[in-house]
Amino acid sequence: MDRVEICAKLVKTLSSLTKGRMRVAIGGAIVSQRAEALARTGADLVTNDLSLVISEFSLV
Length: 60
Known about the structure:
By secondary structure, the protein is mainly α. 53% of the residues lie in helices and 7% in strands. α2 (29-38) links the parallel β1 and β2 (45-46).
């Protein structure tokens, strides 16, 4: 199982356990290598920009 598949399973599990109430962002080294594939994981956001996550998820 590759990293993208693991990310997709984690996103699905988190979404299921929280009944969709928790938004999920994916970031890290894998984004620069597999951004297109990660976009299909079901995550709400795929980025390495923490400021973008904070802004998009209204955390401030």
